[in-house]
């Protein structure tokens, strides 16, 4: 009697729940990050201007995905994946708990700890997932495994915003950040408890002749990164809008140069796969620049320009469990948050002086994207399986190109939202954001987990985590660009132009990838992977 085939290794589920709780903390923090920076100091926030908020948001998101380059290298060569993940999880937990302290020094220290922790955690847990599928029993299911892993990310990202809304409304910003820290510690506990199922995937690959030593890589990339960053910061004027923009982009130059060097010096066996990955990374920069505006420009759109009014029946349920936000017309003493919401309302619908209205908390809109992911992931996995059974499943690079095209279309949905409100002279229906997030989620599912899978498939084994760091470097640059693009929001008198800009950028990247598909697919065939 034959033994039924095992589709996925047990270690996948350990990493699934570890990542679910890590992303719970990460996206809880990210979902309230812009709102916290904009809220007045007397209300428990930081009281930053909109421009400073976008600058810090983009810089943080850029750096949080730049450090995986270092974390991937140290895991590949020195620490191993499990130790790196454990260190990263503890650093991030400390960072979230530090953010709970309402103090500007604690604010920046907390961000630094999260940035360092994510660098140790993020590339290495993704690499471990891929390593689990190097066993011939599971190899054919690697794409499906990454889709399952990706759904774990989004379960955490979906649930966290309800917790964030409850904690912030009932107790304040600090308790919401503390909840993120607790979530991360739960993830660390699960990871430690499931260690036996993943230890065989934690393998440090031996160096090949001609490979750069770890110390040399750090000296040739990290030291110049800081030097270039300082130079960018100190250059008179603002080449890219702000000093931090200049510092970040200049600082990325040595790291990008390192990956180009890696390609140039690679042997014939490794050169084409590395080149293929670098080409994909370049296109992914634009995806992340458009996608991660959900935490900045689209959060502002939800907060100030979306009709969030609750019906009395829903408010009666939501208010006692702290899921409703209250805005009050206090006449000349109306607070800034309420005034911003009332600004584009029909005057006839604004509460009378002294009256209040209940709104869906802005944080809840951050759950729309992960909610779509949870709903659509099983459908997309089933669709690819159906296509595979008929021998028509697209290659991984083709899926990524499709994803970029769909991402571009999501920007056109928001063009419709602006047109429907006569350039935001009135409130937009929540359905516009729900629809836009739904479209971009389909693009995301075709692209992001496939990007992780592609790195795992094509990378030379001894530098898999390092190339995973390259994937996150593309995310890093894209994230910083998202903050830079969001900073342009106020400068567009006609807001449709903002979303047309996003559409044009995403379509340009998609067309570039389609142009490269023949070459990319040839590289995949050479490695006997699809």
Features:
globular, 3 domains, mainly alpha, 530 residues, Growth Hormone, Chain: A, 2% strand, two-stranded antiparallel ribbon, 71% helix, 2 strands
Order of the strands making up the biggest sheet: 1-2
Q: What is the CATH homologous superfamily assignment of the largest domain?
A: MFS general substrate transporter like domains
Q: Structural class, from secondary structure content?
A: mainly alpha
Radius of gyration over C-alpha positions, nearest whole angstrom? 23 Å
The arrangement of helices and strands along the chain is HHHHHHHHHHHHEHEHHHHH
CATH class of the largest domain: Mainly Alpha
- pLDDT < 50 runs, ≥5 residues: none
Q: Bin the helical content.
A: over 70%
Domains counted in the coordinates: how many?
A: 3
Strand content: under 5%
The outline comes out as globular
Total of helices: 18
CATH topology of the largest domain: Growth Hormone, Chain: A
| CATH-scheme architecture of the largest domain | Up-down Bundle
Q: Biggest β-sheet: count, sense, barrel?
A: 2 strands, antiparallel
Total E-strand runs: 2
CA-to-CA gap between the ends? 32 Å
Mean pLDDT: 89
Written account of the structure:
With 530 residues, this protein is mostly helical. It folds into 3 domains: 10-201 and 267-305 and 361-526, Growth Hormone, Chain: A; 214-264; 324-360, no CATH class. The protein is 71% helix and 2% strand. It has 18 helices and 2 strands. It has a two-stranded antiparallel sheet with strand order 1-2. Helix 3 crosses helix 5, helix 5 crosses helix 16 (430-458) and helix 10 packs antiparallel against helix 18 (496-526). The chain is globular, with a radius of gyration of 23 Å.
